[in-house]
């Protein structure tokens, strides 16, 4: 039985689920996503085994029955913001981790949340606080927390992450964050971030604002779609959007064996990170631009002309992305698109030059660039979710019309 929770996150309105009365209360609620992404077909080729997805978020509950055994707690870059003894809530981070790598529970894992890559491992890197945590205001005002996202990215790379999920964002970019993105891509790490939930409230002309880290070159920026696979009304649209994924009424796990239903580009981002994990598990040396190419070239519900600013190249499909990755692996080129590359050997990617654009509204500085991707054309570089106050603040919840 569903009841409305008192708390709401940037991902959108969350509904709390008590102990499920029937096994299909949770898994049944996931069926629209499972069908849209064609996960049963994808799992015949890959379930994400051997891949580590770093979840840069508010922390992950390693004891949730749908995640137990799959989570490694990494560094907490927010340490010192909360008063001594204040326990992290870890709601949003647990929610995202379950969509990526939840393995369910019970007989053959048939109960609870099943993630896109159920055999992947999660590295929890805490870089934000929940709005309700006592240190939230201190965290967003103290200078010592200025570059926690950049430090979190570098830490995740050095700890062996293959994919980094960032359901977080800021209004302004920093030199340190841009350098951390370059560092991750140079090490073959796929970066995925959300396009943002300001599609209704912060419109500047004919697009919603850019945000970071999604708008950096080389990051896969994810928009959200509604039940009809059209742009969800809250989802940002601009030329940084790369792909889209379902982002309305998405079932996920919460701390303490709870379950939540929510909406937002946050959830869509986690689903795309799961697809990236499936590809990296099957083709561990595939470079980030080629992984992005596999997802964009195989996307379904493609807009007229092949691309638009609402859903990018279309809705990600796990099964088709793996099939495209298999094709690309047989004759992959480097990110510059010039030199043939042995798919058994790792490749290094280069990011495109950065163009700086200053937007009047909220004085948002935008770095909009398109990452060159192998035999494919341009990938639209990115925008974001979970907008945090000032440097790392929460995004406003948005309802889908």
From TrEMBL:
Keyword annotations of the record: Hydrolase, Membrane, Protease, Serine protease, Signal, Transmembrane, Transmembrane helix
GO molecular function, one term: peptidase activity
Pfam families, per database record: Peptidase_S8 (PF00082)
PROSITE patterns from the UniProt entry: SUBTILASE, SUBTILASE_ASP
Active site (UniProt): 57 (charge relay system), 92 (charge relay system), 266 (charge relay system)
Peptidase S8/S53 domain mapped to chain residues: 48-314
Keyword field contains tRNA processing: no
Entry superkingdom: Bacteria
Claim: Transmembrane is one of the keywords in the record: yes
Membrane-crossing segments per the record: 366-389
Annotated signal peptide: 1-23
GO terms (BP aspect): proteolysis
Family: Belongs to the peptidase S8 family.
Name of the protein this chain belongs to: Type VII secretion-associated serine protease mycosin
Organism: Nonomuraea rosea
